[in-house]
């Protein structure tokens, strides 16, 4: 079934390309058909094509099982392509087997799609009733839910997607790296939040890979060809069907069976399966329980360290990076602990002696861990800056007022403390500890600079954001307001005119410019 499935996955990408071309030609199109867009429906009420598509995919999974992953997912296509290239180069990835880490996709799915609603509906109201403001500052209070609204058509198709400079490392991490270190479907197994929903849904679906026992000779071809790490021959022997939720219905096992014993059909859901006929062989895992618990903690820490770092690493890429970090750390630990250690195509240690490949591996693993630790430090100061920022109870009018007495001294002191944390999260070239600047950190730092009385610093920070990331409507209004209140009205008007020349659709900037012109007696 490989060529047929490849043809379908290629067609998926052709449709994606056609979607982008249609948007570029017309300026308007259907919102992205991407499951992650469902977050905006749940958080902001924007009913988009991604939400409808993801809902239909989940409902169809309840009937046909986990087929979407095998036949329609672009990340699966990426992994299959990377695996195919590796095999052509003589590299055959080995699956990484863990008891505990397989639950991370479900945790990630709940974090993406369930936690925001629970936080808004239950957690935040409870904390407000208890007047626990410090806890509110930590988790962040979301805006009130505006109700559902139609967002099927969009003009800014790429608004929620990363740039090409992020897409390239995404392909390398979630493609080659996860396949090489974690197995052919490594990202699906240990990092995909959509699979976190599809896997449990598969357990109640009647659509399964079933067997004709009269034709099955237990040759094991089905297990050998499965790239989802499913022990197919054992499951059909014990249950008469595949019950593992990792099965993506790619049908490779069906097509490779020399006796046509396997087929896709409908049977009892996996949750209703009876006991196995015999005691199935005990599964072997790569890590001890102590290693499992330690690596699970590291996986979560690494994920939050890398997620949105510098405003560029998307959630799925952070999951892939975290999975690779876990493997590198675990294997490096084994290099120090075990007498003989190897990975695919390389002997890291033999007879107690670390080989050159092992030295290179340890260097790479150390660099990866140091970068993760560094990212965690930056995120810590980012979070502490947010925590302190939430305590700055100053209105916009107070902050914009050039009179120092407009802002209480206590608020200025608090703003200075928050600014100290934000400053450490800035790039090294600006005196911070980071490798780059983070747009959101810079925006909040500009606000605290304004509150603390450093109005020139606030203007400099905001205009640096303009230069690097382009104009933003609300930011432009802030810059113009600060300039005007500081007596630089002509500069404020000139700035707004530049903004509107580049972004004529900005209503806040346009209204502010009109009001300023009218106040000066201009028509």
Question: Can you describe this structure in just a few lines?
Answer:
This protein is mainly alpha-helical and 523 residues long. It is 61% helix and 5% strand.
Structure in words:
This protein is mainly α. The protein is built from 24 helices and nine strands. The strands form four sheets. The protein has a three-stranded antiparallel beta sheet with strand order 7-8-9. A hairpin with a 2-residue loop joins strand 7 and strand 8. Helix 16 packs across helix 17 and helix 19 packs antiparallel against helix 20. The protein starts with a helix and ends with a helix. The mean pLDDT is 91.
Keyword list:
single chain, 523 residues, mainly alpha, three-stranded antiparallel β-sheet, two-stranded antiparallel sheet, 24 helices, 9 strands, globular
What is the strand and helix layout of this fold?
Elements lengths: L1 H25 L2 E2 L7 H7 L1 E2 L1 H16 L3 H5 L1 H15 L15 H10 L1 H15 L3 H7 L9 E2 L2 E2 L9 H19 L3 H5 L2 H10 L4 E5 L9 H5 L6 H8 L12 H5 L5 E5 L22 H18 L8 H23 L3 E3 L2 E5 L2 E2 L1 H34 L6 H5 L8 H17 L13 H13 L3 H15 L3 H13 L3 H14 L4 H13 L4
Parallel strand pairs: 2-3
Antiparallel strand pairs: 1-4, 5-6, 7-8, 8-9
Helix pairs in contact: 3-11, 5-9, 6-11, 7-8, 9-16, 15-16, 15-17, 16-17, 17-19, 19-20, 20-21, 21-22, 22-23, 22-24, 23-24
Biggest sheet statistics = 3 strands, antiparallel
Hey, roughly how much beta strand do the residues contain?
5-15%
Q: Can you give the helix content as a percent range?
A: 55-70%
Q: Residue ranges: pLDDT <50 for 5 or more in a row?
A: none
Broad structural category: mainly alpha
Mean pLDDT: 91
Number of helical stretches of at least 4 residues: 24
Quantity of strands, as a count: 9
What oligomeric arrangement do these chains adopt? single chain
**Distance linking N and C termini:** 71 Å
Q: Which value, in Å, is the CA radius of gyration?
A: 27 Å
Read across the widest sheet, the strand sequence of neighbours is 7-8-9
Shape: globular
């Amino acid at each position: 079934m490989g060529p047929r499935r490849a043809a379908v996955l290629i067609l998926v990408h052709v449709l994606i390309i056609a979607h982008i071309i249609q948007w570029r030609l017309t300026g308007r199109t259907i919102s992205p058909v991407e499951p992650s867009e469902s977050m905006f429906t749940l958080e902001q009420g924007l009913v988009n094509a991604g939400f409808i598509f993801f809902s239909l995919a989940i409902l169809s999974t309840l009937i046909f099982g986990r087929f979407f992953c095998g036949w329609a997912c672009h990340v699966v296509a990426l992994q299959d392509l990377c695996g195919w290239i590796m095999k052509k180069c003589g590299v055959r990835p080995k699956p990484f087997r863990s008891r505990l880490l397989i639950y991370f996709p479900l945790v990630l799915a709940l974090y993406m799609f369930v936690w925001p609603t629970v936080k808004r509906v239950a957690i935040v109201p409870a904390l407000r009733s208890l007047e626990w403001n410090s806890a509110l500052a930590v988790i962040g209070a979301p805006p009130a839910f505006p109700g559902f609204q139609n967002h099927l058509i969009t003009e800014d198709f790429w608004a929620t997607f990363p740039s090409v400079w992020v897409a390239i490392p995404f392909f390398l991490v979630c493609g080659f790296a996860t396949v090489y270190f974690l197995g052919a479907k490594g990202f699906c197994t240990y990092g995909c939040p959509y699979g976190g929903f599809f896997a449990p849904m598969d357990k109640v679906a009647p659509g399964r890979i079933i067997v004709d026992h009269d034709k099955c000779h237990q040759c094991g071809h089905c297990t050998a060809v499965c790239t989802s790490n499913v022990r197919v021959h054992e499951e059909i022997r014990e249950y008469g069907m595949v019950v593992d939720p990792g099965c993506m219905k790619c049908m490779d096992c069906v097509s490779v069976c020399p006796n046509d014993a396997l087929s896709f059909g409908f049977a009892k859901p996996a949750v209703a399966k009876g006991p196995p006929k015999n005691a199935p062989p005990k599964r072997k895992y790569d890590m001890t329980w102590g290693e499992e618990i330690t690596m699970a903690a590291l996986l979560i820490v690494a994920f939050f360290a890398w997620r949105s770092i510098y405003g560029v690493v998307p959630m799925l890429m952070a999951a892939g990076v975290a999975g690779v970090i876990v493997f590198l750390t675990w294997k490096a630990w084994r290099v120090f602990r075990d007498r003989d250690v190897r990975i695919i195509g390389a002997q890291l240690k033999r007879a107690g002696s670390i080989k050159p490949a092992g030295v290179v591996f340890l260097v790479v693993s150390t660099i990866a861990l140091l970068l993760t630790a560094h990212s965690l430090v930056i995120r810590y100061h980012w979070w502490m800056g947010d925590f302190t920022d939430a305590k700055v109870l100053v209105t916009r009018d107070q902050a914009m007022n050039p009179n120092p007495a407009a802002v209480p001294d206590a608020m200025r002191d608090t703003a200075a403390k928050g600014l100290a944390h934000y400053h450490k999260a800035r790039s090294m070239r600006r005196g911070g500890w980071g490798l780059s600047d983070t747009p959101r950190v810079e925006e909040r730092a500009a606000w605290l600079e304004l509150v603390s009385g450093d109005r020139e610093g606030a203007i400099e920070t905001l205009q640096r954001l303009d230069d690097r990331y382009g104009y933003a409507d609300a930011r432009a209004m802030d810059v113009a307001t600060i300039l005007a209140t500081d007596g630089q009205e002509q500069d404020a008007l000139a700035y707004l005119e530049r903004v509107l020349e580049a972004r004529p659709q900005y209503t806040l900037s346009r209204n502010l410019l009109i009001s300023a012109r009218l106040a000066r007696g201009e028509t």
